[in-house]
Write a structure and sequence with these properties.
Blueprint lengths: L2 E4 L14 E4 L2 E7 L13 H18 L7 E8 L5 H11 L6 E6 L7 E8 L4
Parallel strand pairs: 4-5
Antiparallel strand pairs: 1-2, 2-3, 3-6, 4-6
Helix pairs in contact: 1-2
């Protein structure tokens, strides 16, 4: 079995030597997505808007890899300020439904953004 890189113009391009995502068998791995608009590069100012944009970017990579948010198994959320947790969670609920994927949320130093999200999903059956 070989891994296959996932690339889509519907999410920001990789900012370094990594893929936007990788498909390996039925698994889809989405690299940490930043909240940049893929067309303009603009980053919203507030945590709610950044969360929405970053999850739209995750969704775009998933779809390019043959999956959907419904098929996400694991999510990692990185927040610059853990005080933004409740606001992030409100938007997160708009994108995921029960049974929710397992999730880890970590506070960390991010360069110029409030949130980053990566995910692991299983491919949707065609």
């Amino acid at each position: 079995m070989k891994k296959k890189a996932i690339a889509t113009s519907a999410a920001p391009t990789a900012a370094g030597p990594y893929s936007q995502g990788v498909r390996f068998g039925d698994l889809v791995f989405v690299a940490g997505q930043r909240p940049a608009d893929p067309e303009t590069g603009a980053i919203p100012a507030d945590i709610a808007s950044q969360t929405k944009r970053v999850l739209q970017n995750v969704q775009a990579v998933l779809e390019a890899g043959g999956s959907t948010l419904e098929h996400v198994l694991k999510v990692n959320v990185y927040l610059t300020d853990l005080g933004d947790f409740a606001a992030m969670n409100e938007v997160y609920r708009e994108f995921f439904s029960e049974p929710y994927p397992v999730r880890t949320t970590v506070g960390c130093a991010l360069r110029g953004i409030l949130i980053e999200v990566d995910a692991i999903a299983v491919r949707a059956k065609e």
